[in-house]
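Supplementary Text 2. Reproducibility record for the structural model of the 160-residue chain.

All settings were left at their defaults, and a single model was retained for analysis rather than an ensemble. We include the record here because the model underlies the residue-level annotations in Supplementary Table 4.
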Amino acid sequence: MKKRLFPLLLIFTITLTACSGGENPKDHLGEIYTIALDALMEEDKALNSDMTFIAIDMNLDGVDEEQKKTLLHHFKDQYKVEVMDATMDELEEKGYYNPDTNALEGVLLRIEKVDFTFNDHVLIEGSKFKSGIGAIGVMIEVEYEDGKWHLKESELSWIS
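Retained model, structure tokens:
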């Protein structure tokens, strides 16, 4: 009995150790979300045309106020437009959404689902909204490799 138990215990220990390696993505959420939101901006660049602002729905779990400021500053530097933390409801309240055209004069970026499947990979579902007939959903994979987080893949999941 003991002879069979030892190999099983050894296999279990090796498997557990292998699965626990890598970088904890929850310690790098600001960086990961910046990469994912940049990937959203790169998809369907026609939605970016004539934009006067980028709104980012910052209801992001695990991101503190300093990380949010850094993220907003990154987008302001990168795209040279007004960048704000706002939801669709807030954009409507502030007059940034035109109900007659069902459109924004900018884009709204949202992270809708985050899956921490492995320590070195994060799967993210996000969207970019310009109008009722100009919006996309994107599946984004961010991975930790060679000491840093980077975009592994992004793929359109839906388009309106």
